[in-house]
Amino acid sequence: MKPTHRKFNKILSIITLSIILSNCAYDFSEDSFFEVTQKTPTASISLNSLSDNQIFYVTTRVNFSYNGNNKHRLYEIKIYIDNIEIKTTTTNSGDFIIDTESLEDGNHILKIEYIFSSGSGSLADVSGVEAYIKTEEYNFIVDKSPPPTIVMKSVEIIDGSIYLKWEPITETNFDKALLIITNNGNSNYLEITKQELLNLTYNDTYVHTSTSCTGGQSGNYLEYEIYLENTRGNTISNKVSLSIKPFEIQKLILNENEYKLIIPKHALYNNFDYYSFNDDYNNSVHKVSSQGGEIIVDEPIKFPNLNIGVTFSLYQESGSEDIYKGCLFTFESYFEQFDSGAGGSYNEYIYNEDNDVIYALKIDSSCGSCLDNITIYKLDPIDLEIIDSKVIAIVEAYDNQELTIDPITHNLILDAGSISLLVDKNNFSIINQWEISGFGEQSGNIFYRDNIIVIEQVDNIIFYDSSTKAQFYAVSKTGYFNISDNGRYFYANDTIFEINNKIVIPLTITNTNNSVNLVKFMEGLNKCIYNTYDGNPVIFDFASQTKTVLSDFTRINIMDYDVYTKKLLLVRSEYGFGNSTPSYAYVYGLMTNEFKRIEVGNIVSAWNPEEIPRGYWFANNKLIYRYVDRNGYYLDHYINE
């Protein structure tokens, strides 16, 4: 700044004195004279901390304020830029515009000229004819270039919160600054101040989810960039990115009416204080620290319960009313979901311990009288993900296709009505096949078991040697028939039979009030279990010839046996008109004689309760459900403990 001063003499006083002296004659002694000292004026103008050589990037309004220290009265202020007057005023305060749009890039001079009273107290001062003129000059620079481009350095999670860093900024010639946060492809724009940019770091305290209350299991991929804008253009920084691992909880069944939620420490635990979980069944609210914890929920358990998912609201503690920070939704349930493939009906899920694979048998048919496509799936034993599949056969429509494991070779046996196939367990190639026509029969269902062929007809059951095709036994049939996987035992006509060296021996009569609707032969235990729909299941021991009635169970219409775990699955699935009773699955340990129970969905109609349904299986310690839709479900804890 370059201030200059120019003093007006006391014009009126001098003129008056001259007139008097011209008309009078006086003698002055030397001691009659004294010198009047002129004091430096103390008036000033403040320009909002405007400094010399200040840089203006955008049009700026500058406030001014005159201060006469109660001595110097203001007469006038004139403001010039490059000697062009832009404002004249007589008020003590106001503002003016430095219009960068009308100025060239480069150096400019701001000049402020103000006139004020001398403040001497003389007659001229009092009369307003004695004044000072004061001039102040400021150099300033106009920079109309586009804003600088921010260089982002890093983004990272530190102590449960997100921190950004960028390189130092040399210019602030922008009037808009936005932090762009892109979360899994969805962008949000947050205004940030110049001071925040000059801090060279930013703490993102938001709790990021994918979209409205979702994003638990998918995780988050965050991208950050900074956008700057002025009237000449805009710039955008490079991106820095951050992945936040999926939010995964555990939901574990404790008993039939209680489960436990295990909630992990959140990656952004310092961006909020606690999770809030609404327990609608009990009309209560549970709170868990953002550091993680557990919740016990009292609620009847059902498998599968398709009303799955858990929503957590996130809060930051703040005095009388906590601050809502967002929400998270996770599909986590106490059971797992798997893709079982589109369409078709599933007739079997079975575990082969020999190669640690679960196999699934699916039947597809485009109409009731059309040929069936029979497909075998190879599934991962842990999560039931499809590893491989192959259409094995196309046969006439048949309702009871069956897939079993050959106990001798551990390959697959597929019984499909008029044909029975031995299928390689690894590549699904057909090792051998047998058709009813090859044994001189025109109708019936054929079964292969360890060098034995059985043909079941409407009224007869006929047994053959698979190699020689010689018949070695035949019997008339009434009702249900089943044969063991190893071909040593079968059920027919209310009797359990043994086959020993092609000799058929009756072992026991079932002696039930009503017809047997289910029989399962338990390989490796020399036992079988049989059941009538309205009675109790009975376990028959081949060696001791003893029977054990399982009185805890009744009205069972699904049975499955897992050779690997030596456990039985018993399912009571029913539905009554207007008064449905719960359906239950029981997993019974044959080595411990203990069972676990869980409520399951109904899959049998009241019109035909004795129909043999499918929909639940037990394989590799998993309770598996697949009925109509593409999705299958499995439970791999509690029920198998």
Automatic annotation (TrEMBL):
Domain of life: Bacteria
UniProt keyword annotations, A-Z: Signal
Signal peptide positions on this chain: 1-25
Protein name: Fibronectin type-III domain-containing protein
Organism of origin: Confluentibacter flavum
